[in-house]
Amino acid sequence: MGSGIRETIVRQAEETVTLAGETVRIIHEGSAMEVASSYGVHLGEVFREALEQGIIPYRYIRNHGVISVEDQLKLAESCAGIVGAGGLGGNVIMLLARLGIGRLIVVDADRFDETNLNRQALCTKTNLGKPKATEAAAAVSQINPGVEVTPYVDRLTGQNAPQILREADVIVDALDNVSDRFVLGMTAKRLGIPMVHAGIAGFEGQLMSVFPEDPGLELIFGDPERWKTPRKTPEAVLGVPAVTASLLATLQVMEVLKIILRKGKPVRNKILRPDLETGEFHEIVFT
Predict the structure, then answer these.
(1) What share of the chain has pLDDT > 70, as a percent?
(2) How far apart (Å, rounded) are the C-alpha atoms in residues 161 and 168?
(3) Residues in contact with 140: Cβ distance below 8 Å, sequence separation at least 6, in sequence order
(4) What is the mean pLDDT of residues 135-145?
(5) Average pLDDT over residues 222-243
(6) What backbone phi and psi angles, to 5 degrees, belong to 105?
(7) What phi and psi values does residue 272 have, to the nearest 5 degrees?
């Protein structure tokens, strides 16, 4: 980005705020949008340039403390691929947009229907019948126009997955069936990209992050061949209430943060299983 836009951003960021004894420079969204419009660039580019100069977009000021300026820039430079924009995926998309991810790739062939209203954060009465992926892009534009969204109204297959997801830094498994999960897991491994898996049923869920060198979903589901025959899923038997979807999506987003920022300890080679009825979190470790 040229020095002209950089200087303009610095001039627009003359205001400072003090947080926990630290004084930081900020740029308000209106000012950032003026810069983006003047130079014909995406708002996300202005956010990234501001962060490179140590200037925090004011919308992210409440991230500061646990997410440093350097971390916020890393998020703004990163891309997450979200496969499934329903109960898990919708919440993941909204949380990552609010946190300040730079780009989202959203893949979902489905359309919203009335049964989605109980738990899918992006589903409203006004968008029933509309594609989930494009509705996700529309919602993100209202939540955080600094995030670029590339929607695909497609079912992910072994053929199209590598091309669709090749630019992602991390992939989120927000699917609802095991056979498609294996397609996604094999794609992530082939591309060398970490994947964050979650599943929900009733008031219980499971979470695991899979790195390219890890055994992967076979640890949970066994032989992929046995899942090629359709069977009744736990979700169909126990249902999928909103509270479970929200909690597991939050845990997935935290895994995404840990992977992108290289901080903390991902839930790797083990399963974290929350039980909301008992208030317990169980770990199953694979040895």
Answers:
(1) 96
(2) 11
(3) 93, 94, 97, 104, 147, 149
(4) 98
(5) 75
(6) -105, 120
(7) -100, 125
Q: Where are the domains of the chain?
A: 3-73, 78-285
Domain 78-285 in this protein, CATH class = alpha beta
Q: What is the pLDDT of residue 11?
A: 83
CA distance 72 to 101: 8
Residue type for position 8: T
Q: How many CA atoms lie within 13 A of 6 on its CB side?
A: 8
Pairing of strands 79-83, 170-173: parallel
Alpha-carbon distance of 216 to 151, in angstroms, equals 26
List the beta strands (DSSP E) in 147-213.
Answer: 148-152, 170-173, 195-201, 204-210
pTM score of the predicted model: 0.94
Residue 254: name the closest of 215, 200, 196 by CA.
196
CB contact at 8 A, 149 and 125:
no
Is residue 230 pLDDT above 80, yes or no? no
- The C-alpha atoms of residue 35 and residue 46 are separated, in whole angstroms, by 7
| Cβ proximity of 119 and 240 under 8 Å | yes
Q: Which run of H or of E encompasses 57?
A: strand 55-57
80: closest CA among 266, 244, 255?
255
**Containing H/E element for 16?**
strand 16-19
Q: Which residue(s) pair with 268 in the sheet?
A: 209
How far apart CA 89 and CA 95 sit, in angstroms, is: 10
* Structural tokens at position 31: 């000012």
27 SS3 class: strand
Length of the chain: 287
**CA nearest neighbour of 88 among 210, 196, 209, 230:** 196
CA 217/CA 23 separation, integer angstroms: 46
- Rounded-to-integer distance, Cα 88 and Cα 252, Å: 9
